[in-house]
C-alpha cells in the first residue's frame, strides 16, 4: 500500500503545476512601463507590407532569363567538368583497380586479405578439403589410368603449377611436394 504522505505530496505538486498553467487576472498582471511597444507596432505593420508584394507567378520574360543561364550551364559547363574529371581519374595508376587485375592497389588489398588467417589459403586448390591426401591419391590413380602414353606430367607438379598461378605466395601455405 502506498503511504498517504507520498499521495499528499503528489497532489500538492499537481495543484502547483496547474496554478502555473493559467494566465493571471487583470488585477494581478504587471502594469506596462510605457504605452508604445515597437514590437507590437512592427507585428501590426507586417500584414500591410505583404499587400505591397507582387504575386509569385512566372511572367512571360522570366523564361528567357532562366534559359540564358541554365542551357549553357547544363549542356556545356557541367558535362565538360564531368568529362574532364573522368579523364584525369582514368589516367591515374589505380583508376580502375577493382576491374583491372595486377594494379598496385589491387595487389595491396589482396596481400592484406592473405595476411588474415581465415583467408590465407583461399586460393589454394585443395583448401577446404577434409582429407587432401586422399584426394591427391585418388587423383593420381585416375590420372595414371587416363593419361596419354608417354606423358611425363604428374599430379603433384600440376597441383603446384595451379597453386603458383593462383597465388605467388603458395610456398608459405603448405608443402605440396610431400
Automatic annotation (TrEMBL):
Transmembrane segments: 38-54, 66-91
Signal sequence interval, chain numbering: 1-20
InterPro entries per UniProt: PSI_PsaI
GO annotation, biological process: photosynthesis
CC per GO annotation: photosystem I
Keywords assigned: Membrane, Signal, Transmembrane, Transmembrane helix
Highest taxon above the source species: Eukaryota
Protein name (database record): Photosystem I reaction center subunit VIII
Species the sequence originates in: Symbiodinium natans
Amino acid at each position: 500500500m502506498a503511504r498517504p504522505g507520498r499521495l499528499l505530496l503528489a497532489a500538492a505538486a499537481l495543484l502547483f503545476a496547474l496554478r502555473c498553467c493559467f494566465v493571471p487576472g487583470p488585477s494581478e498582471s504587471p502594469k506596462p512601463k510605457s504605452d508604445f511597444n515597437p514590437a507590437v507596432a512592427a507585428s501590426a505593420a507586417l500584414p500591410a507590407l505583404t499587400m505591397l508584394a507582387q504575386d509569385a507567378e512566372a511572367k512571360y520574360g522570366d523564361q528567357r532569363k532562366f534559359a540564358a543561364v541554365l542551357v549553357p550551364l547544363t549542356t556545356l559547363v557541367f558535362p565538360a567538368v564531368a568529362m574532364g574529371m573522368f579523364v584525369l581519374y582514368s589516367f591515374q595508376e589505380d583508376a580502375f583497380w577493382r576491374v583491372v587485375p595486377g594494379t598496385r592497389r589491387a595487389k595491396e588489398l589482396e596481400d592484406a586479405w592473405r595476411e588474415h588467417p581465415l583467408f590465407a589459403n583461399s586460393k589454394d586448390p585443395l583448401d577446404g578439403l577434409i582429407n587432401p591426401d586422399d584426394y591427391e591419391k585418388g587423383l593420381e590413380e585416375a590420372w595414371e589410368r587416363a593419361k596419354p602414353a608417354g606423358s611425363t606430367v604428374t599430379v603433384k607438379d600440376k597441383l603446384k603449377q595451379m597453386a603458383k598461378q593462383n597465388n605467388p605466395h603458395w610456398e608459405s601455405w603448405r608443402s605440396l611436394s610431400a
